[in-house]
Amino acid sequence: MKKRERTPKTYARITHPMVRDEKGGPLRRASWDEALDRAAEGLGAARGSFGMLSCARATNEMNYVAQKFTRVVMGTNNVDSCNRTCHAPSVAGLSAVFGSGGGTSSYGEVDHTDLILMWGSNARFAHPIFFQHVLRGIRNGARMYAVDPRRTSTAEWAESWLGLNVGTDIPLAHAVGREIIHAGLHNTSFIERATTGFEEYAAEVEPWTLAVAEKVTGVPAEAIRDLAHAYARAERAQLCWTLGITEHHNGTDNVRALINLSLLTGHVGRYGSGVQPLRGQNNVQGGGDMGAIPNRLPGFQDILEPAIRTKFETAWDTVIQPEYGMTLTQMFEAMETGELKAVYCIGENPAQSEADSEQAVERMKKLDCLVVQDIFLTATAELADVILPATAAWAETDGTTTNSERRVQRVRKAVEPPGEAREDIDIICDLAGRLGHPWKYADAESVWNELRSVSPDHYGMTYERLAEHQGIQWPCPDTDKIEPTYLHGRLWDEDPAKRGRLAPFGIVKHDPPVDLTDDQYPIRLTTGRRLDSYNTGVQTGSFASPLRRGEYVELCPEDAERYGVSVGEEVRISSRRGTVQAPVWVDPGLRPGLAFMTMHFPDEVDTNQLTIEANCPIAGTAEFKASAIRIEKLPVSGPASGLVSAPAVRS
Ligand SMILES: Nc1nc2c(c(=O)[nH]1)N[C@H]1C(S)=C(S)[C@@H](COP(=O)(O)OP(=O)(O)OC[C@H]3O[C@@H](n4cnc5c(=O)[nH]c(N)nc54)[C@H](O)[C@@H]3O)O[C@H]1N2
Ligand SMILES: Nc1nc2c(c(=O)[nH]1)N[C@H]1C(S)=C(S)[C@@H](COP(=O)(O)OP(=O)(O)OC[C@H]3O[C@@H](n4cnc5c(=O)[nH]c(N)nc54)[C@H](O)[C@@H]3O)O[C@H]1N2
Ligand SMILES: [Mo]
C-alpha cells in the first residue's frame, strides 16, 4: 500500500521559471529566456507527437491562442482539457441531437419554470450561483425532483428524492419514458413535428415497466410514476444534469437517455423548458467554444468540413490537419505507447485528477518533454522538465469567460501577479515566436477580435457590447441584435424549412458499471465534491485555510456499524487498482453498500488511486462515479491527525 504523508500540503504561487537539467534530477531556478529556450527546444523536437492540455479556468482568449499554437505551430489537433473528464458526454450527446453542444436554456428561466429535475447533480454544493435560481424557482412555486444515489444537500430541497443505485440512470429514464407513453402524456404534435426515431424509442423502453425498473434502480415504482407524470404534465420544465450522469463508461448514452425525455414531452426550445448540463469550471464551456478540443475549430466548427478548414487556413496562413486530434484520454494512452513525446500542460493537474492516477503519473514520466504552465507548484509540475509561472486568469488578467448558459462575460485585471509571473497568452506567444511564428497581440481584445472574425456565433460580441449588456449569450451573429435566451426554438416552427435538422431520439441500452462489486470488493464507491473545496485542492487545499476539512470515506450508519467503525476512525480502502487510508464519516444520506469520497485532498488520501480508467467510447470520460472497493478496519485506530473538523455534509 502506498502510504502518503498525512500532513496537508500548502501550495505557494510559483514566482519564477524552473528547469530540470536531467530526468529525475532536481528542479532549479532559471531565467525566462533559459526556460523558454528549453521549452521551445523540447516541444520543437516533438512536432507531430505533441499534445496540449489547455486551462478551463483561464480566459477564452488564452484558450484561443493555446489551440492556435497547437494547430499552427505544432501542426496537430491534439488539444484538449479537463472538459474530457467531466462534460464531454454532454457536448457529444447535445451535438448529436441538436447540432450544438451547449445547454439549451438560461439560468433566469429556472426562476420561472414549473418543474426542476436535478439529475445526478449536487448543485447546492457545486453550482451555488445556479442554485440561487433553483431556490428562486421553488419560491415561485416550482416543484423540484432530485435523482441521486445520495440524499445530498441538493436533494434536501426537493419535493421528491429518487435514490437510485449507481449506474442505473438509463433504466430509470427509460421507465419514466415508458410511463409517460403508456399514460398518453407524451407530446405527439412536437414528436411528429420535431423529432425522428420515436417508434424505435418506444420499443426500446417498453420492457422497462415500473416494476422492472424498481428492481434494477432501487427506486420505488410509485416514485418513478410520480416523476413521470409531474415532468410530462408540467407546463414548463428544466432538466439539469451533471457528473452523476456523465462520469460513467457510458456517459454519452446516459445523456441521450435524458434528452429523450425532453423530446418526448416537448420540454425544449421554449422559454422555461430546456435541458442544461451545468458545466464544471468557470470557463470549460468557453475553452471548448474556442476550439481547445480535438474535433472543433473556434466557434464549435467541425474540423472535418473542408470549407471550414479553408477559412481558418486563410486566416492563420497555415495548413490544418484534416482529422480529429487526440482526446485527453487518448493522449494518456499515447504516452504509454510512445506515440506522444511532448506535452504542454497549461493549468491542469492530471497527476491527481486522472482516474487510476498512479498509472497516469507513470505515463507522464515517459514523456521526452513536459512543460507545465501553472500558478501553483502542483504534483504535475513536479514531473515537469520546464515550469513556467503564469498569472491567474481570475483577477490578474483581462479577457472573457463563458459560463454554462453560454454567457460570455468580461474579466478584468485587478491585482498585480506575484514575482516574475507572466500572462498565459504572453508566454504562449513568446514560445510561438521561438518556434518560428512571431505573433503579436497588443492585448486580450485583439485576440478576441481575431476570434470574432472567424466565429459567426461570436461575431456580434464586441468588448464594448459585452460591457454594456453585462455579458451576452452565444449565438450572437449580429452587432445590433441579441438572440433569445433559449436555443432551438426552430424545432417548434410551423414551417418545416425553418425547423432545420430534426432531433433524433437516442436508442440506448442499460450497461452496468465496469468495476463490478463482488465478495472481495463488496462496496460501491462514488466520488465527487464538497462545498468547501475545489477539485484537486491545489487552489483550496492550503492548511492555512479555515475552510479545510480533509478527506473522509463516508458510509451510511448501518455499514459503519457492520464494520464496527465510528466517525474519525481510520480504515483501509482498497480497489482492484490501489489502496488508501482515510478516516470514516457517517452520513445518513447514504444507503447500505454505498460509500462516498472526494477528490479534494490527493496529497493525503489519493482517491484516484482507487478509481477505474473505464472510458466512454464516444466522449473519452472515465467512470469516476463507480468503483468497487473493500473497507477494512485498521487494528490500531484513533482520531485522524491533521483533521481540523468534520465535513459539512449537510451544511
Ligand atoms: N464546491 C465545489 N464546486 C465545484 C467543484 C468543486 O470541486 N468544488 N468542481 C467543479 C467541477 S470541475 C465540476 S465538473 C462540477 C461538478 O458538479 P457535480 O456533478 O454536481 O458534482 P459531483 O459531486 O462530482 O457529482 C454530482 C452527484 O452525482 C451523484 N452520482 C454519483 N453516481 C451517480 C449515478 O450513477 N447516477 C446519478 N444520477 N447520480 C450519481 C453523486 O452522488 C453527486 O451528488 O462542480 C464544479 N463546482
Ligand atoms: N475521483 C474523481 N476524480 C475526478 C473527478 C471526480 O468527480 N472524481 N472529476 C473530474 C473533473 S469533473 C475535473 S474538471 C477534473 C479537474 O482536474 P484538473 O483540472 O486537473 O484539476 P484542478 O485542481 O482543477 O487543476 C486546476 C489547475 O489550474 C491551475 N490554474 C488555475 N487558474 C489558472 C490560470 O489562470 N492559468 C494557469 N496557467 N493555471 C491556472 C491551478 O493552479 C491548478 O493546478 O478532475 C476530474 N477528476
Ligand atoms: Mo469538471
TrEMBL record:
Q: How is this protein named in the record?
A: Molybdopterin-dependent oxidoreductase
Q: Name one GO biological process term.
A: respiratory electron transport chain
Q: What is the originating organism of this protein? A: Streptomyces liangshanensis
Q: Which Pfam families does UniProt cross-reference here?
A: Molybdopterin (PF00384), Molydop_binding (PF01568)
What the entry lists under InterPro entries is as follows: Asp_de-COase-like_dom_sf, MoPterin_dinucl-bd_dom, Mopterin_OxRdtase, Prok_molybdopt-oxidoreductase
- Entry's Gene Ontology molecular function annotations: iron-sulfur cluster binding; metal ion binding; molybdopterin cofactor binding; NADH dehydrogenase activity
Q: State the UniProt keywords alphabetically.
A: Iron, Iron-sulfur, Metal-binding
Name a single GO cellular component. Answer: membrane
Q: Which domain of life is it from?
A: Bacteria
Q: Where is the Molybdopterin dinucleotide-binding domain?
A: 524-626
Molybdopterin oxidoreductase domain sequence ranges: 13-433
